[in-house]
Amino acid sequence: MYSPNKKSNRMDSSACIEQKGVVKDISNGLVKVNITSFSACANCHSKQACGLFDQVEKEIDIPKIEAMDLEVGDGVRVIMKRTMGWKAALLGYFFPFMLVLTTLLILHSLKLNELLVGLGSLMVLIPYFTVLYLSRERLRNTFSFTIRKIV
């Protein structure tokens, strides 16, 4: 019997983002999965006419679940919690934008040369992305993916 108050071990499908992929390699407890990301033009009815059709192949490392019988070439679904997508967007786009904008406003209020204001606003991104890069192991643990074999 279903009880709305009980927590389920399965992820709610509305709270997840799924993408089809293919197993490329299995080694060292990791499954390498290739997924193909399409631009917004991929679903447009006039994609042929505009010529902006774009797709990019990405490789994702996912910890292997021992009970799952996977082989190279198997079709899988890569699943990520929707909240992880928002977190990635915040770290990759929103926070850097706010950092640049804030720096731009502060430097502009100091009545500096426009060239210095522009360069200073962009240079503030170097330490930000350096910290992100140095935190990649911690972030890798935060952004976790799961896979399901397509049968």
Report on this structure:
This protein is α+β, with helices and mostly antiparallel strands and 151 residues long. The protein has helices at residues 47-50, 82-109, 114-123, 125-134, 136-142; strands at residues 16-27, 30-38, 55-63, 75-81, 146-149. 39% of the residues lie in helices and 27% in strands. A hairpin with a 2-residue loop joins strand 1 (16-27) and strand 2. The chain has one domain. Mean pLDDT is 81; it is low at 1-11. It is built from 5 helices and 5 strands. The two termini are 27 Å apart.
DSSP helix fraction: 25-40%
Q: Biggest sheet, open or closed, and with what strands and sense?
A: 5 strands, antiparallel
- SSE order: EEHEEHHHHE
Determine the structural class based on helices, strands and strand pairing. Answer: alpha+beta
Number of helices: 5
Q: Strand-residue fraction?
A: 25-35%
Q: How many independent structural domains?
A: 1
Radius of gyration: 21 Å
User: Shape, please?
Assistant: elongated
> What's the pLDDT, averaged over the residues?
81
Q: Report low-confidence residues grouped into runs of 5 or more.
A: 1-11
Distance between the termini: 27 Å
Q: Order of strands in the sheet with the most strands?
A: 3-2-1-4-5
The total beta strand count reads 5
